[in-house]
Design brief:
single chain, alpha/beta, eight-stranded parallel beta barrel, two-stranded antiparallel sheet, about 40% helix, binds ligand PBG
Length: about 325
């Protein structure tokens, strides 16, 4: 018997029939940057076609995203003031709190509002935790993370997404949410977050680059895989409902392994550097942009991701690219 696998590739209909991986708008989450310092919107220099929005324009943008049928947005804030302790992340009327309230007022449950919960955009030193004697201290940071999480939950966030990589933060956030009666608030933990060069464009967008040192004492070493599994296991034990792995493309092996091992939904975050790398190559005509985007998103799904955070979410749905 001659085996000819090409029989199943000869035309689009048969290819569609036997396709193993599906990707729809229901799998996507769109990141949104909300900047308290501006009145309109500003393109992000390191991320072509991505913008920072004022609170009002962010809400308009989220409406468009909801109208497209995309199930969720994740919000990042750029505050007016920064300090040592990131107090503007949890003070009354914080930029993200305002945005969540407005989205919920106008859209209710039409879209899931996910609030990134971290300090780096709010601290003058740009680190994701409190700094003492040049070190990022864990347990004091937890108290601040609890305040931020509670502030966003009170504003109506559906999901709190801690992205700081402090130890025991999921437990700390779960405890405060339970204590204050927010038993339905979902925690999506950035469980396996590597110290990656691919966050570069985001740090320009969110003005969150560390002013000294780097994030290697809290984000994971790219050489490790079992450590990622341990982090995910701990976060699930501590009360995470959803698990995120990032950056997605360099971590397809981690996504794949996590999907096999754990029974919680796994998300891949296709981060800013993955976005800007393809945008830049496409601009130089080195690659076909639309095909590259499609390939990247399907490969994250094929690796085992149940959902994907991507800066292309709005465009791929609008232009029916997937
Ligand atoms: C905040 C945070 C970062 C990203 C998501 N949340 C930046 C960082 O850790 O430096 C990166 C997202 C991206 O690059 O698209 N801690």
């Amino acid at each position: 018997m001659i085996i000819r696998p090409r029989r199943l590739r000869q035309n689009k209909k048969i290819r569609d029939l036997v396709a193993e991986t599906t990707l729809t708008k229901d799998d996507l989450i769109m990141p949104i940057f909300v900047d308290e310092n501006i009145k309109d919107k500003k393109e992000i220099p390191s991320m072509p076609n991505q913008y920072r929005f004022s609170v009002d324009l962010a809400v308009e943008e989220v409406k468009e995203i909801a109208d497209l049928g995309i199930p969720g947005v994740i919000l990042f804030g750029i505050p007016k003031e920064k300090d040592e302790y990131g107090t503007s992340a949890y003070k009354k009327n914080n930029v993200i709190e305002k945005t969540i309230r407005k989205i919920k007022d106008e859209l209710g449950d039409e879209i899931l509002v996910i609030a990134d919960c971290c300090l780096c955009e709010y601290t003058i030193h740009g680190h994701c935790g409190i700094v003492k004697n040049g070190k990022i201290v864990n347990d004091e940071t937890l108290k601040i993370l609890q305040k931020i999480a509670l502030n966003y939950a009170e504003a109506g966030a559906d999901v709190i997404a801690p992205s700081d990589m402090m130890d025991r933060r999921v437990r700390a956030i779960r405890e405060i949410l339970e204590k204050e009666g927010f038993t339905d608030t979902i925690i999506m933990s950035y469980s396996a977050k590597y110290a990656s060069s691919f966050y570069g464009p985001f740090r320009v967008a969110a003005e969150s680059a560390p002013k000294f040192g780097d994030r290697r004492s809290y984000q994971m070493d790219i050489r490790n895989k079992r450590e990622a599994i341990k982090e995910i296991e701990l976060d699930i034990e501590e009360g995470a409902d959803l698990v995120l792995i990032k950056p997605a493309l360099p971590c397809l092996d981690i996504i794949n392994e996590a999907k096999k091992r754990f029974y919680v939904p796994i998300g891949g975050y296709s981060v800013s550097g993955e976005y800007s790398m393809i945008e830049a190559a496409a601009k130089l005509n080195y690659i076909n942009r639309d095909e590259a985007i499609r390939e990247v998103l399907y490969s994250i799904k094929r690796a085992g991701a149940d959902f994907i955070i991507t800066y292309w979410a709005k465009e791929v749905v609008k232009r029916e690219l997937i």
